[in-house]
Amino acid sequence: MGLPTQESLRSLFHAFASFGSRTEVNDMDAARFVKMVKDAHLLCNQLSIADADIIFKRCKAKASRRISFEQFLAALLMCAEKKGSSLEAVVRQVLDAGGPVVHGVAPESVRLHDDKSTYTGVYAKGGPKAVDAPKNDLAVLLDRSDADVRGVKLAQPA
Questions:
Q1: d(Cα 95, Cα 90) in Å, to the nearest integer?
Q2: Which of 26, 33, 121, 157 is deepest in the core (most CB within 10 A)?
Q3: Which of helix, strand or coil describes residue 120?
Q4: How far apart are CA 155 and CA 148, in angstroms?
């Protein structure tokens, strides 16, 4: 591989290794490697997700859970052998991926929430506004003049 290809592959390696992390990571774990294989569209009849996981485990150090860039290159070579293609074709496919792809899920519509014509109660009719309400102080809360007007007399001390 030429130097520009190796540098762009190194930056792509760091992009996939750091995916979902707030900092740049210098080594890649198994989940990020499988994501790279999926995003680069390397999966086929000869190379499955299980094969990619096995290739990762063969390339990593015995006690480690992550691979370095050099081990990543060895893993790409093993992927090329498993697919029955050249290393250059696999590297080109990885470089064409351009980096990790974020897959999101769009929420389904909820009829009673999204359709405002189905709102009930305060939401449909509008409710009291804080600026329209009378001043809330102790005199308003303890005002019993309405009760006296309706004929309900408060108990008088004897």
A1: 9
A2: 33
A3: coil
A4: 11
* Mean predicted confidence (pLDDT) in 93-103: 90
CB proximity list for 36: less than 8 A, separation 6 or greater: 16, 28, 94, 97, 100
Q: Which two tokens stand for residue 104?
A: 């999101």
Strand 66-67 vs strand 28-29: parallel, antiparallel, or unpaired? antiparallel
Candidate from 1-15, 20-34, 99-113, 136-150 with smallest mean pLDDT? 136-150
CB 45 within 8 A of CB 67: no
Give, in degrees to the nearest 5, the angle at Cα 86 between 54 and 58. Answer: 20
Burial 37-53 (b: 16+ CB within 10 A, else e): bbbbebbeeebeeebbe
CATH number of 6-96: 1.10.238.10
152's tokens: 């309900």
- Summarize pLDDT for 128-149 with one digit per residue, the tens: 666 666 666 677 667 667 666 5
Segments making up each domain of the chain, as ranges: 6-96
Give CA–CA dist 122/14, Å, rounded: 53
